[in-house]
Amino acid sequence: MQSIKEQTGFDPYSGRVMVEAVPAKENSGGIVLFVKKVKLKKVTAVKKEKKRALSSVENIDVMMYEFREFGDLCGALERMDRESLLSSVLYKMKKGYCILLYKDDDVKKTHKLLKEYAVRVRSGVNMDIVMEEYGKNIASGEKLAAMAEGIRSLNSGER
Fold this sequence. Notes:
This protein has seven helices and seven strands; from the N terminus they run αββαβααββαβαβα. By secondary structure, the chain is α+β, with helices and mostly antiparallel strands. It has a five-stranded antiparallel beta sheet with strand order 6-3-5-4-7, with helices on both faces. Strand 1 and strand 2 form a beta hairpin. The longest helix is centred in the C-terminal third of the chain and has 16 residues. The chain is elongated and about 65 Å long. It starts with a helix and ends with a helix.
């Protein structure tokens, strides 16, 4: 990081940054590093719920689960409790879907449930930033809970 600062004048110590490593050229053995500042989005009234779900509080750990099949996602959403859904965020990825779920004593059973339907792929405090970069936010909080309720209604035959 010091080399980046000296060579480019870009100060990677002045806030949040994201570092991406990409192979330089085929068979060269080198890499190119892309370092960019991550700007925190301004929160509007509509996005307050999303901000609560995506809060990057340093002592909270976030678990990420990947669903390769839509049916698996529906099965998991149908069985998740409302409290866990309210603290989760669903993303559409290139291949499948991902759910971010905050690690908490109250949601241990949800983590166990999700392992039945999905693969745990990552955890960390800044997963929200990574997912905003590489995925499309589908639903979070109340919207995700409503989506799960709709799936339950479909499967029970209610209209």
